[in-house]
Design goal:
With 158 residues, the protein is mostly beta strands. It contains no helices and nine strands. Helix content is 0%, strand content 49%. It has an eight-stranded antiparallel β-barrel.
């Protein structure tokens, strides 16, 4: 099971760039704004849950937790829970929350570890489902690129 779902925890070594924040009022913005963070994941940041039968199977999952960095400083934390739903394409669905100084951003999405014929890639993209504080009414998406140990998370707020 791929651990980059969130960061993943939950995928890269690119530096954080293009930082912009929604206003504290939570009002919608015209155009999109981008928040980019780099996460580094330690072994203890991910906990795998193996349900019967033993080994990777439908129903297995993982919990992830990782610090997010911007400009070499801690900028927040990402927390997530994923569950494996399909053995054929090794699909997993994840619920993720990014905790930032101005509030939280909630996300949901799914990923595949094997390419789906006629559809393509295994990249990770999550829908922004809402937020709190400066992110009230947030929408858009978040993508993850990396290897599960060091990932770049790019939030595109629309």
């Amino acid at each position: 099971m791929r651990t980059t779902s969130l960061i993943a925890a939950l995928g890269a070594a690119a530096a954080a760039t293009g930082i912009a924040v929604l206003p504290a009022s939570g009002q919608d913005q015209t155009g999109s704004r981008t928040l980019t963070f780099v996460t580094t994941q330690k072994h203890d940041d991910v906990k795998f849950i193996d349900v019967k039968p033993k080994g990777e199977s439908v129903g297995d999952g993982f919990l992830l937790s990782s610090l997010m960095h911007r400009d070499g400083r801690v900028a927040g934390r990402v927390e997530g829970q994923c569950v494996e739903l399909d053995a054929t394409y090794q699909a997993q669905m994840c619920h993720i929350t990014a905790i930032l100084a101005g509030g939280q951003i909630t996300l949901q999405g799914a990923g595949l570890n094997k390419k789906l014929p006629g559809v393509g890639g295994t990249g990770e993209a999550y829908a922004i489902t809402g937020g709190t504080g400066a992110y009230v009414g947030a929408s858009g998406s978040m993508t993850i690129k990396g290897n599960g140990r060091r990932d770049t998370l790019t939030f595109t707020l629309g």
